[in-house]
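Quick check before the chapter quiz. The format below is the same one you will see on the exam, so make sure you can read both the input and the output lines.
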Amino acid sequence: MQWKHASFPSPRKFKVQASAGKIMCTAFWDAEDVLLIGYMPHKVAVTGVYHTDLVHKFHVAIKQKCREKLTKVPLLLHDNAPGHRSHVGQATILECGFEETRHPPYSLYLAASD
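Here is the expected output.
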């Protein structure tokens, strides 16, 4: 329903078009470069198995692009997503030799990527 003056014509209604959809990507980067971008397939949930596959791809990308960075323990910044907390995902992080760090508390002056 819409309020309008009796002498004014009814407003035109435009046809709504379906959107192209959303695309989710996961990016792994360091101070110099983007190391891996993973695009999620359409209508696939982030599960422990999907996250495990992505961590393995990241490990391979580090070996190919910058092997010297594996001399230090790479840190992964994770949020509290179920795929990140899964036992399969946690085991993969340890298997690849990565260390996990949690998001810092919310701050107006601190971005998560800092």
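If your answer matched, good. The two ends are 49 Å apart (CA to CA).
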